[in-house]
Amino acid sequence: MTSAPLAARLSLPSGPLFFPVTAYGPDGSVDLDAYRTHVRRGVEAGAAAVFACCGTGEFHALTPEEFERCVRAAVEAAEGRVPVVAGAGYGTALAVRYARLAEAAGADGLLAMPPYLVVAGQEGLLRHYREVAAATSLPVVVYQRDNAVFTPETVVELARTDGIIGLKDGLGDLDLMQRVISAVRTEVPGDFLYFNGLPTAEQTQLAYRALGVTLYSSAVFCFAPEIALAFHRALADGDGRTVEKLLDGFFRPFVELRDQGRGYAVALVKAGVRLRGLDVGEVRPPLHEPTEDHVKQLAELIERGYALLEEAK
After folding, report:
1. Backbone dihedral angles phi then psi of residue 221, each to the nearest 5 degrees
2. What single string gives the DSSP state of each residue in 34-90?
3. 6, 94, 117, 306: which has the highest count of C-beta atoms within 10 A?
4. Residue 3: what pLDDT?
5. 2 has pLDDT over 60
6. In the beta sheet, which residues pair with residue 51?
């Protein structure tokens, strides 16, 4: 266990960033025992951090009470071995409430997701995230995607804001990211963090790494941690052969399968966790379960991915 600041703990990750799914029981209620098991297994497998109740964890589907219980369970399961970052979102008042619930539950930081529904201007977005950052003592990573896309000038102001330590990019505009990184480096020298937050980030991480972005989320880690870790190690070691083999034989086919259904970035991951032996239940509406054929294809793909690891030995 370490008391080092979150930014320092995240800056040199020993493994992928783990975004656990949220477990539900047969009656649809949160299953905290299964959730603790899922988080604990991920930490033991080599995750560098746990991002609880975020996109993959169906933040949108949780009540505030369920959210707090899940974050607390993640903190308990992690036992201080890695930091636990919790999601926070919706409008400003609710995002502040979730931030305070996360702090009360023992989280080490926040992932501030886009505001709900509205398309706001840069001034309003900046005010929103500054209010979230001021609401607790927790460091904040701002998630850029959908209706929360920032100009380089706005990210400079975010970087100047006490409590905001980084930007997670779920947009995929590399030109914009390069301009953001350059502007912050010029105007606010320091250790502002950047994350690749695209779905199945491994698929784009070579491009992000060329910009200097080494942190990325891994949904695959939820159900195939050995594959995710092998890819992470190969990137860090400059092992291009293994990177290409895993991209060609596993990650690209997984992305193609994921793209066959809306919401599969969550639902297919959850199906993968069940396939690997942990019953975490189904996704909540408005998401829906993958088709039987798609689950069968996922099972075959997981088997192929592990076979690739054996070949690489």
Report:
1. -55, -25
2. HHHHHHHHHHHHT-SEEEETSTTTTGGG--HHHHHHHHHHHHHHHTTSS-EEEEE-S
3. 6
4. 46
5. no
6. 85
